[in-house]
Amino acid sequence: MKISILLPYKENFSPVYAGAVSLFVNDTSKISKYKQRITVYGNTKFKKKFSINYKNLILKKKILNSTSKIYVENFLKIESKNKSDIIEIHNRPSYVKQILSKIKSNIILFYHNDPLSMYGSETIEERNYLLENCEYIVVISEWIKSQFIKNLNPDHSLLSKIHVIPHSINKIKNAKIIKGKKNNIIFVGKLNSQKGYDIFGNVIIKILNKYKNWYGIVIGDEEREKLIFNHERLKILGFIEHSKVIKLFEKSSIAAVPSRWEEPLGRTGIEASSRGCATIVSNRGGLPETITNGIILKTLSENELYDRIEYLIKNPNQRKKLQKNSILNFKLDHKNIVQKIDDVRKKILNKYFFNIDKKSKLKILHITNFNLRYFGRLHFNTGTRINNGLIRLEHNVLSLSDRDLVSFSKSLRDYSGAKFLNNLIEKTIHNFEPNLVILGHADRVDAEMLTDIKNKFRNIKVAQWFLDPLSKKGPDYLKNKNRILDKDKCCDANFLTTAPDALDFKINNSFYIPNPCDQSIDNLKNFNNEPISDIFYAISHGVHRGTLRSGKLDEREKFIKKLLKKCRNIDFDLYGMFNKQPVWGNKFLQCLTNSKMGLNLSRGKPIKYYSSDRIAQLMGNGLLTFIDEETQYGDFFNDDELIFYKTIEDLAEKIKKFKKDNYKLKNIARKGHNKYHKFFNSTKVANYIIDKTFGIKSKYFWDKE
After folding, report:
1. Can you give the three-state secondary structure of 572-631, one letter per residue?
2. For residue 672, which of 637, 641, 627 has the smallest C-alpha distance?
3. DSSP label of 169
4. Nearest one of 615, 659, 608 to 629, comparing CA atoms
5. Whether this model's pTM surpasses 0.70
6. Out of 2.60.40.420, 3.40.50.620, 3.30.750.24, 3.40.50.11930, which CATH number does the structure's domain 3-164 have?
7. CATH 3.40.50.2000 describes domain 175-330
8. Element (H, E) at 206
9. 579 DSSP 8-state letter
10. What is the maximal distance between C-alpha atoms in the chain?
11. In the chain, where the domains are located
């Protein structure tokens, strides 16, 4: 992995004249767990650089061309030859658009100043662009965050991209340093009125005149504004190296930061507090966030600052208490802050460079119909079974019932509920950031939305499973074909209960899966009992109805009528036909317990490997099961595990045969049940979906590749 850090143009990455951004980047990069992968890019004339990996961008200025744009173009030339996995841009939002117009990259934008005063983020439109196109935005204070989101109305998923990570300093281990402090009052910063130097200058002269054993120290410079203060006990040191500044904080008792400017954060407050100064700050911008134990000026005036300094001079115990607590309660040390920055980097790595293997624990969003609105009528459906398998594999599974959601959210503005559903899914993905999205018959999920999600989260995989018949000679052929093809191109894998090579059309990356049984659902073991009925068969006219549809005739009813005539002495337990209503929920499972045998008859002409989920319910619960041999289930089961029939006459004879041989019936039912649970269980099917989607090589009983 490669991380490139792009500094602002003219930022001096040198200990000789380092600004706050350079100090932040140097301090955090050199102890980052990714330090060997970080390269800092900048432009400075100073020969002495910080010791971490740094490349100076040499610029050739051109007439009428922006130097900043030339600077970024030079960076892009290097980037095009050796692409970074993450680009971190500091304090220059305008660089984001220029970079993304040339290359696709994962950008973290760092703000060290007020976004509303910076070119590239002044307008609402510009800040919305940054929110949508940056992977994350790091701000150094809550105040900067409040400025960035001012007048915006972003949803929570976009707001979650913003992380508050302040500047930092290495923490002192104990408070013994307080014993060595001298009567120094220190000011560090630009020597101008915006930083409050005029206020400090007038106050320090009065303090030094009154308190003869106290001294003043001023560190900083200013070319544009000249504020002159002189006193024999006031040392004005100009700009000095940062390490020397820290030493002077350690020796000083009081630090003053009376800034008029809305400070984005205020590094002086952090450094002074970390070194045990009794620190006084104005209530401007992010300055109050820099101190844990200190004094915040209620009003910014010479009188207020004078009174606070004098109070600390006159009350040494209170002064020492503030000094001690500033050290003990200090939280903004390098170790904590670097951990937060590395966590943001890790989020990107997990999102786009997460290596999936058999041991990986995934975040999975499973979208299918869990039938909540029908009160558990189909609590044993395939979606629930696959969900159970995913959870048994110890993955973090978030389940969305798409058809329930559209049903509950329909309105005059959103008649189908699809807008609500797709908006909900998109926001959920932004918040949950799954590794895998699995769809099951999720027809209202928009393919375009999924494609957009995959562009934003390039590590997300999408898979769909489909249970309905896809044979040209089966029911709803065109409808089902269009349903599966609607999203096959945005799916990394498609899973069918029909053999893909038996279809007359191509589905991208398609694989066969058996209808899964589930140990927590299919637990009847009828072969251990003495059921009162011979053979069970049930159909329905749709779960959404719950009852028979008047005037509708299922083609399978004709088959059953003929079968009944050929099996006069067989006790059939039939539902969903001949004016007998379908059975649902737990009553369905109770009805299963009443039969020794079950007929696995699906709609349409038999096609390779296709069966409805009926087969899992029958074999999974230990019924002797009959199936048409044209389904080619003989590839998976032997004659002593599953009964194959050629014709209706053959089926009738075999039913009558096994009615007479209860011992053999039970043995075959038991062997079929055991094999189905061993090889076709929901955990294996769920694992197969994951393995095929992520290209993990594994062997499965039904996979004939």
Report:
1. EEEECECCECCCCHHHHHHHHCCEEEEEECCCCCCCCCCCCCHHHHHHHCCCEEEEEHHH
2. 641
3. B
4. 608
5. no
6. 3.40.50.11930
7. yes
8. helix 197-210
9. T
10. 120
11. 3-164, 175-330, 363-512, 526-680
Q: How far apart are CA 26 and CA 170, in angstroms?
A: 12
Give the pairing type, strands 643-645 and 38-42: unpaired
Which sign does the torsion angle of CA 648, 652, 657, 658 carry? positive
Say which residue the tokens 């994350």 belong to.
136
Distance CA(399)–CA(406), nearest Å, equals 15
Note the CATH number of domain 363-512.
Answer: 3.40.50
Residue 509, number of CB atoms within 10 A of its CB: 15
Q: Name the DSSP letter for residue 13.
A: -
Q: How many CA atoms lie within 13 A of 705 on its CB side?
A: 14
Amino acid at 282: S
CA atoms within 13 A on the CB side of 227: 21
E strand or H helix at 314 = helix 302-314
Q: If we measure between CA atoms, which residue out of 602, 473, 474, 585 comes closest to residue 537? A: 602
Q: Which amino acid is at 20?
A: A
Tokens 């955090």, residue? 28
Q: What is the pLDDT of residues 561-603, one digit of tens each?
A: 999 999 999 999 999 998 888 888 889 989 999 999 999 999 9
- Whole-angstrom Cα distance, residue 369 to residue 442? 7
Asked if residues 246 and 271 have their Cβ atoms less than 8 Å apart, the reply is yes
Which amino acid is it at 376? G
User: 3-class SS at 56?
Assistant: strand
- CA 422 – CA 402 distance, rounded (Å): 9
For the domain 526-680, what is the CATH code?
3.40.50.2000
Fold matches, 363-512 and 526-680: yes
Q: What is the pLDDT of residues 92-124, one digit of tens each?
A: 999 999 999 999 899 999 999 999 999 999 999
Find out whether 273 and 326 touch, Cβ atoms under 8 Å.
yes
